[in-house]
Structure formats: C-alpha cells, structure tokens
Amino acid sequence: MNTKVDFINEIKPNAVFRQDEKSGYYKAHYKGFLQAIGMGKTKEEAELNLLEIFIATLKERGEKIREQSLNSYYAG
User: Fold this and answer.
1) What's the whole-model pTM score?
2) How far is CA 63 from CA 27, 36, 66, 71, in A?
3) Could you say which of 16, 34, 46, 76 would form a disulfide bridge with 40 (CB–CB 3.0 to 4.6 Å)?
4) Of residues 66, 17, 11, the one with CA closest to residue 39
5) What is the number of alpha carbons within 13 Å of residue 49 lying toward its C-beta?
C-alpha cells in the first residue's frame, strides 16, 4: 500500500498571481489559503516560493495540532 501523496499530481493547487506595479515582482497564494504567500521575479519563481512556504506552514500547523491533542489527552 502506497501512503505517500504526490502533492503536485494529486492535489492540484490553484495559485493566484498578482504583479506589484512598483517592483514588478509577482505575489502568489493558493485560492482558499491566504496564510501562505510566495514572491518572485517571475510567476514560476513566485509559485516555487509559495509551495515551499505552504509546505512549511502545513508542517508547523501539524505540530501544533499534535501538541494540542497530546496536551488535551493527558490533561483529561
């Protein structure tokens, strides 16, 4: 049984791009997930940065959820 998820091919995130008029840089976020924002000189660079930030955000939240669950279990 394969439990690994191929994020790019199975989940298909929808990136939204905006170009800053002053700097020319692109900002990107995933539709429905505004907590992670990537920036770059090109759309591709912005999306790559967004993916890295998105993954880091999920890892951070996962640890917080795990910690809260364990604290709740042992407190009760």
Assistant:
1) 0.66
2) 27, 17, 5, 12
3) 46
4) 17
5) 16
Task: Give the CATH number for residue 71.
Answer: 3.30.160
Token pair of 41 as six digits = 């000189």
Q: Where are the beta strands (DSSP E) in 1-76?
A: 15-19, 26-30, 33-40
Q: How far apart are CA 29 and CA 73, in angstroms?
A: 35
CA 41 to the chain's CA centroid = 19
Structural domains counted in the chain: 1
Q: Look up residue 39 and give its two tokens.
A: 């920036």
Q: Domain span at residue 19? A: 7-75
